[in-house]
Amino acid sequence: RAARLVVVAAAAAVLVGKASFSSAGLSFVGAARGVVPLQSPILPGRPRRSQPPKSALQALRLYGSQGSRSPLVNWYLYEIGAEFEMMDAGGIDRSSPSFPNPFGQIPALSDGDVQLFESGAILLYLAQKYGGMDSPEKLASVSKWVVWANAALDPIVFKENESGQVLDTGLKGRPRKIERFEEILEGRQWLLGDEFSVADVAVASYLLYGIMFFPDLNMRKWPNIARYMAAAAQRPAYGKAFGAKTAAMLAQKCSGPPSEDEKKFGFF
């Protein structure tokens, strides 16, 4: 999906648990969805795989902002060591026919003549072309999770009204799909086992967004999910994309065993 939400406080304030904020005239409850991490992305990390010719990578342009879902795309680009040009969407005419998303939303990506929008579609394209998922079998192993993140996990994490405004999160309860996901993660470090992949970027991003929006949210009632989220937030590439302080605070909120009251009632 394209980004539709604008968080209404700096991530530092959100993550220390303040209850109400305002930004650009919007209140937290009912604000358009997005996240404003504490730090801007820095230069890409060291490549982890053999890369296409440098000239090909330099054609990549990611259109976004820190207040959109584009940081999750940044995260994956940093993980695979891809070089790209970050285009600040605030200084671009998104109504122009040349903008990669005909709906004018972000994130959007251009790679030479290829234009893409929707975060999941962008991730899958990058994984196939630059991330080593270059066969139908490899792509199948991750695409099911990327699609699941957008189609099934998103509506659980974000409860919206008809205008797309976030009112609440289903993670305050015990959704059946999340309970099942807790079981799936038993004995697994990542979704593909010991190998971190684009599937984890998609799924972990949404789960961590939940705490960014709802800082009192207790994810430790699901020990496997909390462990998984903490490990994702501790990855250097995540810190580059979302900000080191944001990443550290998220990891801390997911670390440690839940108390008996947390297990029973689901709050801190």
Termini gap: 31 Å
Beta-strand fraction estimate: 5-15%
Structural class assignment: alpha+beta
Q: What gross morphology would you assign?
A: globular
Question: Averaging pLDDT over every residue, what do you get?
Answer: 81
Q: Count the E strands.
A: 8
- Poorly predicted runs are 1-50, 52-57, 261-268
Order of helices and strands: HEEHEHEEEHHEEHHHHHH
Q: Order of strands across the biggest sheet?
A: 4-3-5-6
**Count of individual helical segments:** 11
Major sheet attributes: 4 strands, mixed
| Rg (CA only) | 18 Å
Helical content (DSSP H or I, runs of 4+): 40-55%
SSE arrangement:
Blueprint: H1 11-15, E1 22-23, E2 26-27, H2 54-57, E3 60-64, H3 70-80, E4 85-88, E5 108-111, E6 114-117, H4 119-129, H5 136-157, E7 159-160, E8 166-168, H6 176-184, H7 198-213, H8 223-233, H9 236-242, H10 244-254, H11 260-265
Parallel strand pairs: 3-4
Antiparallel strand pairs: 1-2, 3-5, 5-6, 7-8
Helix pairs in contact: 3-4, 3-7, 3-9, 4-5, 5-7, 7-8, 8-10, 9-10
What does this molecule look like?
The protein is α+β, with helices and mostly antiparallel strands. The chain is 42% helix and 10% strand. The chain is built from eleven helices and eight strands. The protein has helices at residues 11-15, 54-57, 70-80, 119-129, 136-157, 176-184, 198-213, 223-233, 236-242, 244-254, 260-265; strands at 22-23, 26-27, 60-64, 85-88, 108-111, 114-117, 159-160, 166-168. The strands form three sheets. It has a four-stranded mixed sheet with strand order 4-3-5-6, with helices on one face. β5 (108-111) and β6 (114-117) form a beta hairpin. The longest helix is centred in the middle third of the chain and has 22 residues, at 136-157. The two termini are 31 Å apart.
